[in-house]
Amino acid sequence: MMKKKAGLMMALVLSICAVFAQEVKTPKVVMDQFMDKRFGMFIHFGPVTQRGTEIGWSRNKEVAQADYDNLYHEFDPRLFNADTWVKTAKDAGMKYLTITAKHHDGFCLWPTAYSDYNISNSPFKRDIVGELAQACKKQGVTFCIYFTVLDWHDPDYPIHNPYDSTKNVKGDMTAFKTRMKNELKEVITKYKPFMLWFDGYWEKPWTKEDGKEIYQFIKSVDANVIVNNRLGKISEKLNEESVGDFLTPEQRIGEINMNEPWESCITICNQWAWKPNDQMKSLKQCIQTLVTTAAGNGNLLFNIGPAMDGHIEARQVKRLQEMGDWLKQYGESIYSTQGGPYAPNAIYGATRKGNKIYLHVFQRKDGMLTIPAIPGVKITKSYFMNGDAVTIKADKNNYQIGLPATLPDENCSVIVLVLDKNAQGIPVILTKA
Ligand code: FHN
User: Matching SMART domains, A to Z (predicted)?
Assistant: First the structure.
Protein backbone atom coordinates (compact mmCIF):
# COMPACT_ATOMS: atom_id res chain seq x y z
CA MET A 1 0.00 0.00 0.00
CA MET A 2 2.79 2.39 1.01
CA LYS A 3 4.60 1.62 -2.25
CA LYS A 4 1.49 2.52 -4.28
CA LYS A 5 1.06 5.81 -2.41
CA ALA A 6 4.72 6.72 -3.02
CA GLY A 7 4.27 5.98 -6.72
CA LEU A 8 1.20 8.22 -6.94
CA MET A 9 2.99 11.03 -5.08
CA MET A 10 5.95 10.82 -7.46
CA ALA A 11 3.65 10.97 -10.47
CA LEU A 12 1.97 14.09 -9.02
CA VAL A 13 5.33 15.81 -8.35
CA LEU A 14 6.57 15.00 -11.86
CA SER A 15 3.43 16.36 -13.51
CA ILE A 16 3.68 19.60 -11.48
CA CYS A 17 7.33 19.98 -12.52
CA ALA A 18 6.35 19.34 -16.13
CA VAL A 19 3.82 22.17 -15.95
CA PHE A 20 6.37 24.58 -14.46
CA ALA A 21 9.05 23.46 -16.89
CA GLN A 22 6.73 24.28 -19.79
CA GLU A 23 7.17 27.66 -21.37
CA VAL A 24 4.45 30.13 -20.45
CA LYS A 25 2.66 31.34 -23.62
CA THR A 26 0.36 34.31 -24.19
CA PRO A 27 -3.25 33.14 -23.74
CA LYS A 28 -5.19 32.60 -27.03
CA VAL A 29 -8.02 34.84 -25.81
CA VAL A 30 -5.54 37.75 -25.60
CA MET A 31 -4.19 36.99 -29.08
CA ASP A 32 -7.75 36.92 -30.44
CA GLN A 33 -8.37 40.36 -28.94
CA PHE A 34 -5.21 41.62 -30.67
CA MET A 35 -6.17 40.18 -34.06
CA ASP A 36 -9.69 41.62 -33.82
CA LYS A 37 -8.12 45.13 -33.74
CA ARG A 38 -6.76 44.71 -37.30
CA PHE A 39 -5.28 48.24 -37.55
CA GLY A 40 -2.65 50.03 -35.46
CA MET A 41 -0.39 53.08 -35.59
CA PHE A 42 3.38 52.58 -35.56
CA ILE A 43 5.38 55.67 -34.48
CA HIS A 44 9.13 56.03 -35.06
CA PHE A 45 10.34 59.09 -33.14
CA GLY A 46 13.51 60.36 -31.45
CA PRO A 47 16.25 63.03 -31.43
CA VAL A 48 17.39 61.99 -34.94
CA THR A 49 14.30 63.76 -36.37
CA GLN A 50 16.44 66.92 -36.04
CA ARG A 51 18.44 65.57 -38.98
CA GLY A 52 15.49 64.13 -40.94
CA THR A 53 17.45 60.91 -41.46
CA GLU A 54 16.57 57.32 -40.56
CA ILE A 55 16.43 56.45 -36.89
CA GLY A 56 19.37 54.28 -35.84
CA TRP A 57 20.62 53.49 -39.35
CA SER A 58 21.82 57.03 -40.16
CA ARG A 59 24.17 56.99 -37.12
CA ASN A 60 27.70 56.55 -38.53
CA LYS A 61 26.27 57.03 -42.00
CA GLU A 62 24.55 60.30 -42.94
CA VAL A 63 25.17 61.53 -39.37
CA ALA A 64 28.55 61.19 -37.63
CA GLN A 65 28.34 59.19 -34.39
CA ALA A 66 29.45 62.08 -32.15
CA ASP A 67 26.86 64.38 -33.76
CA TYR A 68 24.11 61.73 -33.60
CA ASP A 69 24.75 60.81 -29.95
CA ASN A 70 24.56 64.46 -28.85
CA LEU A 71 21.34 65.35 -30.67
CA TYR A 72 19.36 64.72 -27.47
CA HIS A 73 20.97 67.81 -25.93
CA GLU A 74 18.88 69.86 -28.38
CA PHE A 75 15.83 67.56 -28.51
CA ASP A 76 12.84 69.71 -27.50
CA PRO A 77 9.66 68.63 -29.39
CA ARG A 78 7.53 71.45 -27.98
CA LEU A 79 4.58 70.59 -30.26
CA PHE A 80 4.40 67.03 -28.93
CA ASN A 81 0.89 66.46 -27.62
CA ALA A 82 0.06 62.86 -26.69
CA ASP A 83 -3.69 63.50 -26.86
CA THR A 84 -3.31 64.86 -30.39
CA TRP A 85 -1.18 61.92 -31.56
CA VAL A 86 -3.64 59.41 -30.06
CA LYS A 87 -6.66 61.26 -31.49
CA THR A 88 -4.99 61.14 -34.92
CA ALA A 89 -4.72 57.37 -34.55
CA LYS A 90 -8.29 57.04 -33.29
CA ASP A 91 -9.71 59.22 -36.09
CA ALA A 92 -7.86 56.98 -38.56
CA GLY A 93 -9.75 53.99 -37.20
CA MET A 94 -6.61 52.60 -35.57
CA LYS A 95 -7.30 50.48 -32.49
CA TYR A 96 -3.76 50.35 -31.09
CA LEU A 97 -0.57 52.41 -31.07
CA THR A 98 3.07 51.25 -30.88
CA ILE A 99 5.81 53.79 -29.99
CA THR A 100 9.57 53.29 -30.39
CA ALA A 101 10.37 53.61 -26.67
CA LYS A 102 13.94 52.59 -27.54
CA HIS A 103 15.24 52.10 -31.08
CA HIS A 104 18.69 50.82 -32.19
CA ASP A 105 20.34 54.16 -31.27
CA GLY A 106 19.62 53.35 -27.61
CA PHE A 107 17.87 56.62 -26.76
CA CYS A 108 15.00 56.03 -24.31
CA LEU A 109 11.83 58.09 -24.72
CA TRP A 110 10.98 57.42 -21.07
CA PRO A 111 12.90 58.51 -17.89
CA THR A 112 14.50 55.13 -17.25
CA ALA A 113 16.53 54.60 -14.08
CA TYR A 114 18.92 52.32 -16.00
CA SER A 115 20.47 54.63 -18.58
CA ASP A 116 21.22 58.37 -18.58
CA TYR A 117 20.66 58.40 -22.36
CA ASN A 118 16.99 59.22 -21.94
CA ILE A 119 14.38 61.90 -22.43
CA SER A 120 14.68 63.33 -18.88
CA ASN A 121 18.20 64.52 -19.79
CA SER A 122 17.00 66.42 -22.88
CA PRO A 123 15.64 69.99 -22.82
CA PHE A 124 12.18 68.46 -23.26
CA LYS A 125 12.46 66.33 -20.11
CA ARG A 126 8.88 64.98 -20.29
CA ASP A 127 8.05 61.26 -20.36
CA ILE A 128 6.84 60.76 -23.96
CA VAL A 129 6.10 57.05 -23.41
CA GLY A 130 4.17 57.74 -20.20
CA GLU A 131 2.13 60.57 -21.70
CA LEU A 132 1.21 58.39 -24.69
CA ALA A 133 0.22 55.52 -22.39
CA GLN A 134 -2.05 57.88 -20.43
CA ALA A 135 -3.59 59.40 -23.58
CA CYS A 136 -4.25 55.93 -25.01
CA LYS A 137 -6.00 54.88 -21.82
CA LYS A 138 -8.07 58.06 -21.83
CA GLN A 139 -9.15 57.65 -25.48
CA GLY A 140 -9.60 53.87 -25.50
CA VAL A 141 -6.69 53.13 -27.84
CA THR A 142 -4.59 50.09 -26.89
CA PHE A 143 -1.03 51.05 -25.92
CA CYS A 144 2.00 49.07 -27.17
CA ILE A 145 5.77 49.51 -27.03
CA TYR A 146 8.55 48.95 -29.58
CA PHE A 147 11.79 47.88 -27.84
CA THR A 148 15.07 47.21 -29.63
CA VAL A 149 17.02 44.00 -28.91
CA LEU A 150 20.28 45.46 -30.22
CA ASP A 151 21.63 48.78 -28.88
CA TRP A 152 24.53 50.35 -30.73
CA HIS A 153 24.94 52.98 -27.98
CA ASP A 154 25.11 50.64 -24.98
CA PRO A 155 28.75 50.00 -23.86
CA ASP A 156 27.87 46.42 -22.87
CA TYR A 157 26.49 45.58 -26.33
CA PRO A 158 29.43 44.40 -28.52
CA ILE A 159 28.41 46.12 -31.78
CA HIS A 160 28.69 49.89 -31.74
CA ASN A 161 28.68 50.53 -35.49
CA PRO A 162 26.87 48.13 -37.87
CA TYR A 163 28.88 49.53 -40.79
CA ASP A 164 32.35 48.98 -39.34
CA SER A 165 33.14 45.74 -37.44
CA THR A 166 36.51 47.20 -36.36
CA LYS A 167 34.47 49.27 -33.94
CA ASN A 168 33.10 46.14 -32.18
CA VAL A 169 34.04 45.65 -28.54
CA LYS A 170 34.02 42.66 -26.21
CA GLY A 171 30.97 43.97 -24.42
CA ASP A 172 29.19 42.07 -21.67
CA MET A 173 25.97 40.41 -22.82
CA THR A 174 25.10 39.31 -19.27
CA ALA A 175 25.20 42.92 -18.08
CA PHE A 176 23.38 43.99 -21.28
CA LYS A 177 20.54 41.49 -20.71
CA THR A 178 20.28 42.46 -17.04
CA ARG A 179 19.83 46.10 -18.06
CA MET A 180 17.30 45.02 -20.70
CA LYS A 181 15.32 43.07 -18.09
CA ASN A 182 15.36 46.04 -15.71
CA GLU A 183 14.15 48.39 -18.46
CA LEU A 184 11.48 45.93 -19.60
CA LYS A 185 10.21 45.42 -16.05
CA GLU A 186 10.17 49.21 -15.68
CA VAL A 187 8.08 49.84 -18.82
CA ILE A 188 5.76 46.85 -18.28
CA THR A 189 4.96 47.80 -14.68
CA LYS A 190 4.79 51.57 -15.30
CA TYR A 191 2.98 51.71 -18.68
CA LYS A 192 1.22 48.32 -18.89
CA PRO A 193 1.68 47.80 -22.66
CA PHE A 194 -0.73 45.34 -24.31
CA MET A 195 2.06 44.23 -26.66
CA LEU A 196 5.86 44.47 -26.91
CA TRP A 197 7.21 44.87 -30.46
CA PHE A 198 10.84 43.71 -30.41
CA ASP A 199 13.28 44.38 -33.23
CA GLY A 200 17.00 43.95 -33.97
CA TYR A 201 17.29 40.17 -33.55
CA TRP A 202 19.67 39.74 -36.53
CA GLU A 203 23.10 40.59 -35.06
CA LYS A 204 25.56 37.89 -33.90
CA PRO A 205 25.73 38.75 -30.18
CA TRP A 206 22.00 37.94 -29.81
CA THR A 207 20.96 34.28 -29.74
CA LYS A 208 17.68 32.40 -29.87
CA GLU A 209 18.37 31.31 -26.29
CA ASP A 210 18.65 34.98 -25.25
CA GLY A 211 15.27 35.52 -26.89
CA LYS A 212 13.70 32.59 -25.04
CA GLU A 213 15.19 33.86 -21.76
CA ILE A 214 13.77 37.35 -22.23
CA TYR A 215 10.38 36.00 -23.40
CA GLN A 216 10.02 33.93 -20.23
CA PHE A 217 11.23 36.89 -18.14
CA ILE A 218 8.49 39.04 -19.68
CA LYS A 219 5.92 36.33 -18.94
CA SER A 220 7.08 36.31 -15.32
CA VAL A 221 6.34 40.05 -15.12
CA ASP A 222 3.04 39.93 -17.03
CA ALA A 223 1.82 36.64 -18.52
CA ASN A 224 -0.69 38.45 -20.75
CA VAL A 225 1.59 40.89 -22.56
CA ILE A 226 1.85 39.92 -26.22
CA VAL A 227 5.34 39.59 -27.78
CA ASN A 228 6.09 39.61 -31.52
CA ASN A 229 8.44 37.06 -33.17
CA ARG A 230 11.52 39.35 -33.20
CA LEU A 231 12.96 38.40 -29.80
CA GLY A 232 14.29 35.19 -31.28
CA LYS A 233 16.07 34.75 -34.59
CA ILE A 234 13.18 35.59 -36.90
CA SER A 235 11.34 32.75 -38.56
CA GLU A 236 8.52 32.57 -41.07
CA LYS A 237 6.68 30.07 -38.83
CA LEU A 238 5.67 30.01 -35.19
CA ASN A 239 7.14 26.78 -33.83
CA GLU A 240 9.52 25.46 -31.17
CA GLU A 241 12.41 27.10 -33.08
CA SER A 242 10.81 30.53 -32.94
CA VAL A 243 10.15 32.88 -30.01
CA GLY A 244 7.05 35.03 -29.69
CA ASP A 245 3.35 35.16 -30.47
CA PHE A 246 2.91 36.58 -33.98
CA LEU A 247 4.71 36.86 -37.32
CA THR A 248 5.88 40.29 -38.55
CA PRO A 249 6.26 40.66 -42.34
CA GLU A 250 7.79 44.08 -42.94
CA GLN A 251 7.11 46.58 -45.76
CA ARG A 252 5.02 43.92 -47.47
CA ILE A 253 1.60 42.33 -47.01
CA GLY A 254 1.84 38.81 -45.59
CA GLU A 255 0.41 35.78 -47.42
CA ILE A 256 -3.02 34.56 -46.26
CA ASN A 257 -2.51 32.58 -43.06
CA MET A 258 -5.48 31.26 -41.09
CA ASN A 259 -3.35 29.40 -38.52
CA GLU A 260 -0.72 31.82 -37.21
CA PRO A 261 -1.33 35.39 -36.03
CA TRP A 262 0.55 37.91 -38.17
CA GLU A 263 0.91 41.67 -38.55
CA SER A 264 2.46 43.55 -41.46
CA CYS A 265 4.36 46.73 -40.53
CA ILE A 266 4.40 49.24 -43.39
CA THR A 267 5.28 52.94 -43.66
CA ILE A 268 2.83 55.61 -44.86
CA CYS A 269 5.87 57.30 -46.48
CA ASN A 270 9.20 55.63 -47.28
CA GLN A 271 11.30 56.31 -44.16
CA TRP A 272 10.33 55.01 -40.72
CA ALA A 273 11.40 58.20 -38.91
CA TRP A 274 10.38 61.64 -40.20
CA LYS A 275 11.99 62.76 -43.46
CA PRO A 276 11.26 66.13 -45.08
CA ASN A 277 9.30 65.80 -48.37
CA ASP A 278 9.26 62.03 -48.11
CA GLN A 279 6.96 60.38 -50.66
CA MET A 280 3.58 59.45 -49.13
CA LYS A 281 1.29 56.61 -50.26
CA SER A 282 -1.97 57.49 -52.03
CA LEU A 283 -5.29 56.97 -50.25
CA LYS A 284 -6.07 54.06 -52.59
CA GLN A 285 -2.72 52.41 -51.72
CA CYS A 286 -3.34 52.95 -48.00
CA ILE A 287 -6.88 51.55 -47.99
CA GLN A 288 -6.07 48.61 -50.28
CA THR A 289 -3.03 47.77 -48.13
CA LEU A 290 -5.23 47.62 -45.03
CA VAL A 291 -7.94 45.59 -46.79
CA THR A 292 -5.53 43.13 -48.38
CA THR A 293 -3.87 42.58 -45.00
CA ALA A 294 -7.23 41.91 -43.31
CA ALA A 295 -8.25 39.70 -46.25
CA GLY A 296 -5.16 37.61 -45.51
CA ASN A 297 -6.24 37.31 -41.84
CA GLY A 298 -3.56 39.75 -40.64
CA ASN A 299 -3.20 43.08 -38.85
CA LEU A 300 -1.65 46.24 -40.31
CA LEU A 301 0.74 48.30 -38.18
CA PHE A 302 0.91 51.50 -40.24
CA ASN A 303 3.88 53.75 -39.52
CA ILE A 304 4.08 57.53 -39.28
CA GLY A 305 7.08 59.68 -38.33
CA PRO A 306 6.32 62.86 -36.34
CA ALA A 307 8.61 65.83 -37.11
CA MET A 308 11.38 67.08 -34.82
CA ASP A 309 9.07 69.60 -33.09
CA GLY A 310 6.59 66.83 -32.24
CA HIS A 311 3.85 67.64 -34.74
CA ILE A 312 2.57 65.10 -37.27
CA GLU A 313 2.64 66.54 -40.80
CA ALA A 314 -0.78 67.83 -41.86
CA ARG A 315 -0.68 65.77 -45.07
CA GLN A 316 -0.17 62.55 -43.02
CA VAL A 317 -2.96 63.54 -40.61
CA LYS A 318 -5.25 64.15 -43.61
CA ARG A 319 -4.41 60.80 -45.21
CA LEU A 320 -5.11 58.99 -41.94
CA GLN A 321 -8.38 60.88 -41.51
CA GLU A 322 -9.40 59.77 -45.02
CA MET A 323 -8.68 56.15 -44.02
CA GLY A 324 -10.81 56.71 -40.92
CA ASP A 325 -13.65 58.05 -43.07
CA TRP A 326 -13.53 54.88 -45.17
CA LEU A 327 -13.51 52.74 -42.04
CA LYS A 328 -16.46 54.66 -40.58
CA GLN A 329 -18.46 53.36 -43.56
CA TYR A 330 -16.88 49.92 -44.04
CA GLY A 331 -15.18 49.06 -40.73
CA GLU A 332 -17.68 46.23 -40.11
CA SER A 333 -15.89 44.40 -42.96
CA ILE A 334 -12.46 44.80 -41.28
CA TYR A 335 -12.63 44.75 -37.48
CA SER A 336 -13.21 41.37 -35.74
CA THR A 337 -13.36 39.57 -39.06
CA GLN A 338 -11.45 36.57 -40.36
CA GLY A 339 -9.59 36.69 -43.62
CA GLY A 340 -10.87 34.76 -46.65
CA PRO A 341 -12.35 32.50 -47.71
CA TYR A 342 -11.00 33.87 -51.00
CA ALA A 343 -7.24 34.50 -50.93
CA PRO A 344 -6.73 38.18 -51.83
CA ASN A 345 -5.53 39.22 -55.29
CA ALA A 346 -5.14 42.46 -57.26
CA ILE A 347 -8.85 42.63 -58.10
CA TYR A 348 -10.52 41.68 -54.81
CA GLY A 349 -10.05 40.52 -51.23
CA ALA A 350 -12.52 38.87 -48.86
CA THR A 351 -13.16 38.91 -45.14
CA ARG A 352 -15.89 37.11 -43.22
CA LYS A 353 -17.93 37.32 -40.03
CA GLY A 354 -20.85 35.07 -39.02
CA ASN A 355 -22.82 34.16 -42.18
CA LYS A 356 -21.44 37.09 -44.21
CA ILE A 357 -18.59 37.33 -46.69
CA TYR A 358 -17.36 40.89 -47.39
CA LEU A 359 -16.03 41.06 -50.94
CA HIS A 360 -13.73 44.11 -51.30
CA VAL A 361 -13.47 45.14 -54.96
CA PHE A 362 -10.23 47.03 -55.67
CA GLN A 363 -10.74 47.62 -59.39
CA ARG A 364 -13.36 47.10 -62.12
CA LYS A 365 -11.81 45.11 -64.95
CA ASP A 366 -15.16 44.86 -66.73
CA GLY A 367 -18.91 44.66 -65.98
CA MET A 368 -18.69 41.14 -64.55
CA LEU A 369 -16.70 39.92 -61.55
CA THR A 370 -16.38 36.12 -61.65
CA ILE A 371 -15.34 34.34 -58.45
CA PRO A 372 -15.20 30.59 -57.64
CA ALA A 373 -18.42 29.15 -56.22
CA ILE A 374 -18.26 27.74 -52.67
CA PRO A 375 -19.40 24.08 -52.58
CA GLY A 376 -22.38 23.41 -50.31
CA VAL A 377 -23.12 27.09 -49.76
CA LYS A 378 -26.10 29.13 -50.91
CA ILE A 379 -25.96 32.93 -51.24
CA THR A 380 -29.29 34.14 -49.92
CA LYS A 381 -28.68 37.87 -50.43
CA SER A 382 -26.06 40.17 -51.96
CA TYR A 383 -25.68 43.95 -51.91
CA PHE A 384 -23.11 46.74 -51.89
CA MET A 385 -22.42 47.86 -48.33
CA ASN A 386 -23.47 51.38 -49.31
CA GLY A 387 -26.92 49.96 -50.10
CA ASP A 388 -26.78 49.65 -53.90
CA ALA A 389 -28.22 46.38 -55.23
CA VAL A 390 -25.97 43.67 -56.69
CA THR A 391 -26.97 41.09 -59.33
CA ILE A 392 -25.38 37.67 -58.90
CA LYS A 393 -25.68 34.56 -61.05
CA ALA A 394 -24.49 31.23 -59.58
CA ASP A 395 -23.56 28.08 -61.50
CA LYS A 396 -21.76 24.93 -60.29
CA ASN A 397 -18.34 26.50 -60.55
CA ASN A 398 -18.66 30.25 -60.31
CA TYR A 399 -20.57 33.23 -59.03
CA GLN A 400 -20.93 35.99 -61.63
CA ILE A 401 -21.40 39.37 -60.02
CA GLY A 402 -22.64 42.25 -62.16
CA LEU A 403 -20.72 45.49 -61.54
CA PRO A 404 -22.09 48.99 -62.29
CA ALA A 405 -20.18 51.22 -64.72
CA THR A 406 -18.89 53.20 -61.73
CA LEU A 407 -18.15 51.41 -58.47
CA PRO A 408 -19.64 53.03 -55.32
CA ASP A 409 -16.19 53.70 -53.81
CA GLU A 410 -13.20 54.60 -55.99
CA ASN A 411 -10.72 53.28 -53.41
CA CYS A 412 -12.42 50.05 -52.41
CA SER A 413 -16.07 49.00 -52.78
CA VAL A 414 -17.57 46.31 -50.54
CA ILE A 415 -20.14 43.71 -51.58
CA VAL A 416 -21.86 41.69 -48.85
CA LEU A 417 -22.68 38.05 -49.65
CA VAL A 418 -25.14 36.64 -47.10
CA LEU A 419 -24.81 32.85 -46.85
CA ASP A 420 -27.18 30.16 -45.67
CA LYS A 421 -24.50 29.05 -43.13
CA ASN A 422 -21.60 30.34 -41.04
CA ALA A 423 -18.70 31.49 -43.23
CA GLN A 424 -15.94 30.85 -40.68
CA GLY A 425 -15.44 27.18 -41.43
CA ILE A 426 -15.03 27.52 -45.23
CA PRO A 427 -11.51 26.45 -46.32
CA VAL A 428 -9.36 29.06 -48.08
CA ILE A 429 -10.03 29.30 -51.83
CA LEU A 430 -6.93 30.17 -53.84
CA THR A 431 -7.70 32.68 -56.59
CA LYS A 432 -6.02 34.30 -59.55
CA ALA A 433 -6.60 37.94 -60.47
O1 FHN B 1 15.91 48.30 -38.32
C2 FHN B 1 14.54 48.44 -38.08
C3 FHN B 1 13.97 49.62 -38.78
O4 FHN B 1 14.62 50.79 -38.38
C5 FHN B 1 12.49 49.73 -38.43
O6 FHN B 1 12.35 49.94 -37.05
C7 FHN B 1 11.79 48.45 -38.88
C8 FHN B 1 10.35 48.48 -38.40
O9 FHN B 1 9.85 47.22 -38.43
N10 FHN B 1 12.45 47.27 -38.31
C11 FHN B 1 13.85 47.15 -38.52
C12 FHN B 1 14.19 46.76 -39.93
O13 FHN B 1 13.74 45.43 -40.14
Answer: Alpha_L_fucos
Q: Is 414 helix (H, G, I), strand (E, B) or coil?
A: strand
Q: Which atom of ligand 1 approaches the CA of 250 most closely? A: 9
Distance between CA atoms of residues 342 and 351, nearest Å? 8
Give me the phi and psi of 164, to 5 degrees please.
-145, 95
Q: Is 250 in the pocket of ligand 1 (CB under 6 A)?
A: yes
Report the nearest atom of ligand 1 relative to the CA of 56: 4
Tens digit of each residue's pLDDT (9 = 90 or more) over 189-198: 999 999 999 9
Q: pLDDT of 150-189, one tens digit each?
A: 999 999 999 999 999 999 999 999 999 999 999 999 999 9
Q: Is 56 in the pocket of ligand 1 (CB under 6 A)?
A: yes
Identify the burial level of 22 via C-beta atoms within 10 angstroms of its C-beta, where 0-12 means exposed, 13-18 middle and 19 or more buried. exposed
- From atom 1 of ligand 1, which residue's Cα is the shortest distance away? 200
* 415 Cα to the center of ligand 1, angstroms: 36
Q: Grade residue 236 by pLDDT with cuts at 50, 70 and 90.
A: confident
- Tell me, in angstroms, the distance from the centre of ligand 1 to residue 300's CA: 15
Q: Does domain 20-333 have CATH number 1.20.1250.20?
A: no
Q: State the amino acid at position 13 in one-letter form.
A: V
pTM above 0.85, yes or no: yes
Q: Which CATH number describes the domain made up of 338-425?
A: 2.60.40.1180
Domain spans, the chain = 20-333, 338-425
